[in-house]
Amino acid sequence: MADAVSCGHKMKATEGMSNSQISIAVDAMGADGGIITILNGCKAAMDKGLKAKLLLTGDEVQIREAAATAGVILDGGQVTVRHAEQVVSMQDKPSQVMRRGRKTSMWAAIEAVKKGDVVAAVSSGNTGALMAVSILQLRKLEGVDRPAITALWPNIKGGKGVVLDVGANVEATAEQLVQFAIMGEAYYRALTGKEKPKVGLLNVGAEELKGHELIRMAATTLKESDPEMAFHGFVEGDDLAKGTVDVVVTDGFTGNIALKSAEGTARMIGGWVKEALTGSIMSKLGAALMMGSLKSLKSRMDPSTANGAPLLGLNGLVLKSHGGADAAGVASAILIAQSLAEQPFQEEIKSTIAKVARRAEQAAAAQPAPESEIQNQEKATA
């Protein structure tokens, strides 16, 4: 596949179906920059070698106007339109969209996955609504309690790791953290081709006794019931940027705060660098001499190169594109969707979760009964 997302990862080609046979639904109405941003993103994806066909969902008149401006040829084989007259706003509650959102562009994109018209859907719309509608239409994978949202996280090694959950689940049980680890491992393997991704649980310390009981229980389960996983143990906040592990697992509350903190820090540093390089004539001259290096730094810090977060744990592939993403970011999400489509990582998630749950149950059954339970049994048989 062509340079998919320029994110430092080698994307695997799709399996079982050629890229030219794949169709991807794109919600044309959810971006902050409007329909033109989505159409420019589609054009950018095609310019980068996209082979999949695209199904754009949304107001047909507006889509056709934007397509003409972006230079995207509709109905010519690669791009078609499916009319949807309504739009999910950022203010809409997920429950409202689930009840009254059947005529929206977001609903139409996910419905296309459900019907088998496409193999994946990409939307820049309301995250809560996207998750709710996806669960309603596609249902959860067998054995998955709650789907999770992922994020690609840059590190000092020059690559990117996967972090989940980053917002779908404010709280998570030990069992759900185990499921997130399994889903993140399978996703990273599909994304990069790495056979044994290293997985870590985000904690307040790396020592085994650190953290609350739930995270320690999750670590025990992963060590004892999933020996095939390259489980590293606990990692701390600075390990995300160090690239200590490939997959970092946490609950959505912690993950979202970490993500927003990192984004804010990146913007602050970017502002400082710009200020330092434009504060005087000498600094401007220095910046001119460093132009090549500065462009490389800007490219590495550009969030659009990592845009496109799959909602893991569904019976279908749905990717969340950042609402404020530019055309390059939209193209990134579409190309990631093409790369992931038809790969067997969904089946891998199901089988691994079932296997780990079975092993955990067997381990629990093999544990000696608590002293109080033994005493009760002795009294009952006395």
CATH class of the largest domain: Alpha Beta
Strand count, sense and closure of the main sheet? 11 strands, mixed
> What's the number of domains?
2
Order of helices and strands, N to C? EHEHEHHEHEEHEHEHEHHHEEHHH
What do these coordinates show?
This protein is of the alpha/beta class. The chain has two domains: 1-139 and 314-343, Isopropylmalate Dehydrogenase, CATH 3.40.718; 147-277 and 346-382, 3-Layer(aba) Sandwich (Isopropylmalate Dehydrogenase). Helix content is 48%, strand content 14%. The chain has helices spanning 35-47, 60-70, 94-100, 105-115, 127-138, 174-192, 213-225, 239-242, 252-278, 281-289, 291-301, 327-340, 345-366, 371-381, and strands spanning 23-27, 53-58, 79-83, 120-123, 148-154, 160-164, 198-202, 230-235, 247-249, 309-312, 317-320. The protein has an eleven-stranded mixed β-sheet with strand order 3-2-1-4-11-10-5-6-9-7-8, sandwiched between helices. β2 (53-58), α2 (60-70) and β3 form a beta-alpha-beta unit. α1 (35-47) crosses α12 (327-340) and α6 (174-192) runs antiparallel to α13. The chain is globular, with a radius of gyration of 23 Å. 45% of the residues are buried. Residues 1-16 have low confidence and may be disordered.
